[in-house]
Specification:
This protein has 9 helices and 8 strands. By secondary structure, the chain is α+β, with helices and mostly antiparallel strands. It is globular, with a radius of gyration of 19 Å.
């Protein structure tokens, strides 16, 4: 639902709109009306991306929250599918890897499970052991920060200079439920054909669900526990970053309330 403008850095340091060879993407406040905190969307995405990078060691492209000439905020992010010399980096999102498109169904972006993403890594990544841990951390992050738009197209693989494929930097990280309070807690199910006793009882995912996902990703139990525990360890730092963010005061409180609620879910 977000408007996106492709920009190119010209001489003199000016970012100008372009129809080709874009180097940056600008996301102003969306024109489509959302139920809540419309004006806070650029600051929300900037904050969430910065939290992911600074506190949880998730690789993200350079990004910023900027002020337009009319005083309105906008989110700016550097494209990561171009090398410094301008050549394009081969990249495939998980919809493409699974052969899903509008022709295969209207909800093709959401027609899958996070468990399925791990299986794709085993197929396409020689460095599956390290990349699966990165993927697990990112899935946990999306859950803890209420990103209900982490669908198949928002995960991708990029080709390295050596010709193999690794997870692309994370993108479109945002607390969507702040703006869409009635949305699902995750964009997709964790599993294709499994429901834990915790899930059956509560109808939302808890710690044992994520530990089961880690097992299916073939992660060491201790590593998965450490990743989940990091969200508790970094709670005060998250709070400080939210307090210092560009969010409006009511949005700051809403953001933290949602994070604390998800922490209780995985306690």
């Amino acid at each position: 639902m977000q408007d996106k403008i492709s920009l190119k850095l010209e001489r003199g340091g000016k970012l100008l709109p372009t129809e080709k060879d874009g180097e940056y993407i600008l996301k102003p406040i969306p024109s489509a009306l959302l139920p809540a905190y419309q004006e806070d969307i650029p600051a929300n995405e900037h904050l969430t991306m910065q939290i992911a990078s600074q506190l949880f060691k998730i690789l993200v492209p350079p990004n910023a929250c900027v002020e337009m000439s009319d005083g309105e905020p906008a989110y700016l992010v550097k494209r990561f599918d171009r090398r410094p010399d301008g050549t394009k980096i081969a990249q495939e999102d998980f919809c493409q890897l699974l052969g899903r498109s509008p022709e295969t169904g209207q909800s093709y972006k959401y027609d899958g499970s996070y468990e399925e993403l791990g299986k794709l890594l085993q197929t396409y990544c020689a460095a599956y052991v390290t990349e699966s841990e990165k993927l697990f951390r990112l899935i946990c992050f999306n859950y803890l920060f209420s990103n209900g738009d982490a669908h198949l197209k928002n995960f991708s693989l990029s080709q390295t200079l050596q010709g193999d494929y690794l997870l692309s930097p994370a993108y479109d990280l945002i607390c969507t439920s702040m703006h869409l309070p009635n949305e699902a807690r995750l964009a997709m199910d964790l599993f294709h054909d499994y429901e834990s006793e915790f899930y059956k009882m509560n109808m939302f995912y808890g710690r044992q669900d994520f530990m089961e996902l880690a097992r299916r990703f073939e992660l060491m139990e201790a590593r998965a526990e450490a990743i989940l525990n990091t969200f508790f360890i970094q709670r005060d730092s998250v709070c400080e970053m939210v307090r210092n963010s560009f969010l409006s005061p009511p949005a700051k409180q809403n953001y933290m309330d949602r994070f604390n609620d998800r922490l209780r879910a995985i306690r």
